[in-house]
Amino acid sequence: MPLSMPWIIGAFAGAVSAMVFVGSANAVGLVRVMMVLAVPLPGLLAGLGWGTSAALSFAAAGAALAGIFAGFGGIIVWLVTLGLPVAALTHATYLNRQVAPSAMGPGGGQAGTEWYPPGNLLFLIALIGCSLGAGLMTIIAQDMATFKGRMVTIVETFIKGLPPETAARFKPEQINTLAEYALALVPGLSAAAIVGAYVFNLWLAALITKSSGRLARTWPDLPSTQMPRGASLLLAVALLVTMLGGTIAFFASAVAGGMMFAYLLVGLAIVHAITRGNTWRGAILGGVYVVLLFFNTYAAIGLVLLGLAEPFLPFKRKPPGQSPPPPPRPPPPPGT
Fold first, then answer.
1. Is the pLDDT of residue 314 over 50?
2. Who has the most CB within 10 Å: 98, 127, 210, 216?
3. Mean pLDDT for the chain overall
4. Phi first, then psi: what are they for 111, rounded to 5°?
5. How many other CB atoms are found less than 10 A from the CB of residue 50?
6. What does the CA dihedral 150, 133, 290, 324 come to, rounded to 10 degrees?
7. Residues 6 or more apart from 4 whose CB is under 8 A from it?
8. C-alpha distances in angstroms, 161 versus 157, 169, 174, 279, 290?
9. Measured in Å, how far apart are the chain's first and last C-alpha atoms?
10. Least confidently predicted of 41-55, 132-146, 259-273, 310-324
11. For the whole model, what pTM was predicted?
């Protein structure tokens, strides 16, 4: 394969993503959401399939087209939100080291190659999501009054859709209070959405490149995903800072939201791991996801706490292919 091929493929991926990126500004509703979520996918496909050089070409080509359509601001937005994160994730995915087979962890590869753990990748994505969420809050904080006014309008529109007798109970001060609560949730939800989008796109890109035979690393054991040490400390500090109030709490809530979503995924990984070999595994996992879908707030908090508390829990995750030990046999009857 010519040396220029990764750069050509990366540039083509950058052009595709840039067109989707610019076109999403004119889309509405669910179509816009799907277009925004799909923007990183071509770059991750190019990077995982053809290496870091393709990811860098993706970043450069996309930035050039974003600059043509949106000026210098478009270049900055593209590089910060897409180009650099895609290149960083591609590079981190292929980090590896040679170790003795006996020292390899559950996510290790073959022939003494230990690949960058999926938990570290998740932490990197969480940092990207927290940074982008905090950056979005920087833009919002510059004109907080206008943004709050828009939030009041959104709450008023929602209330108008309620039955007339219910809508009539809401007074202006109550609407303002609801708008403030909604405003406080925006940073965390924004960061969590970014983390979720990048996790999904990286997983999908890796799955596609693996199916095509171009994934140059072994597939990790995702149920063994563990966040690195110190990640929980970052979440704890962010939660404490949110209690201080003011602008700094606004930014801290973005960090807390991104980290909590990452630990939610760790909690799901724990459930997948501890149910290995269980006859009722399908029903258990299905029940967990149904509860998460319909009672998402409480279930999400429970999974986050599970992910945080794992080091202190008595049970341990089962490695791949390990089944629970058979139950002990009853003692033989007397006289036999």
1. yes
2. 127
3. 83
4. 55, 40
5. 24
6. -170
7. none
8. 7, 13, 16, 46, 27
9. 74
10. 310-324
11. 0.84
Six token digits for residue 150? 């828009």
How far apart are alpha carbons 219 and 112 in whole angstroms? 15
- To which residue do tokens 């970052």 refer? 234
List the beta bridge partners of residue 98. 113
Q: Vertex 121, ends 119 and 122: CA angle to 5°?
A: 65
Token pair, residue 131, equals: 């940074």
Strand partners, 96: 115
Residue type at 112 in one-letter notation: G
d(CA 49, CA 46): 5
Residues 6 or more apart whose CB falls under 8 angstroms from that of 75 comprise 63, 64, 66, 67
The residue with tokens 């945080």 is 308
Burial class of 145 by CB neighbour count within 10 A (0 to 12, 13 to 18, 19+): exposed
Token pair in block for residue 73: 């601001």
Residue positions counted in the chain = 336
Structure token pair of residue 23: 């076109």
